[in-house]
Write a structure and sequence with these properties.
Number of strands: 6
CATH superfamily of the largest domain: Putative neuraminyllactose-binding hemagglutinin homolog like domain
Radius of gyration: 18 Å
Low-confidence stretches: 1-18
Mean pLDDT: 82
Number of domains: 2
Distance between the termini: 35 Å
Oligomer: single chain
Length: 138
């Protein structure tokens, strides 16, 4: 119990000095709060979303995925994007969308990324990068 109390006390002390974005955005200190507010407002006011034509996956020339594996990768990418699109109207012309979603599965680095940008400014409003642990989780 003492250990838990000590750890909680350390995090209570350290956490306020180590500000970071709730949306995975690059920022430092107090600038994170301002950046997060701007991103949250943009995501809350957005009505439409589209999928970037740059979404996809990359792999080593020495380890080319089979046609079946490629279909599975595209299914996983599309499933992740459907989750991100859930509360928005999907449009197929990104010039008419409020937000643009790009998903990339990198088989070389064994990670997956999801980046949402504001289509008017081109600014990133959300990012998430994860290592590939289990394809059922990604």
């Amino acid at each position: 119990m003492r250990l838990v109390t000590s750890i909680v006390a350390v995090f209570a002390f350290v956490t306020p000095t180590m500000a970071q974005s709730k949306y995975g955005l690059s920022c430092i200190g107090d600038g994170c709060s301002t950046l997060d507010q701007k991103a949250a407002t943009r995501m809350a006011t957005a009505k439409t979303v589209c999928t970037s034509g740059n979404s996809g996956f990359s792999y080593s020339k020495k380890n080319v995925p089979s046609a079946t594996e490629q279909r599975i990768y595209w299914q996983d990418i599309n499933a992740a994007q459907r989750v991100a699109e859930y509360t928005y109207q999907v449009v197929y012309d990104c010039s008419k969308a409020d937000l643009i979603i790009k998903t990339n599965l990198d088989l070389l680095m064994e990670n997956v990324s999801l980046v949402v940008t504001d289509s008017d400014s081109g600014e990133t409003v959300f990012t998430e990068f994860r290592s590939i642990q289990d394809t059922r989780n990604d």
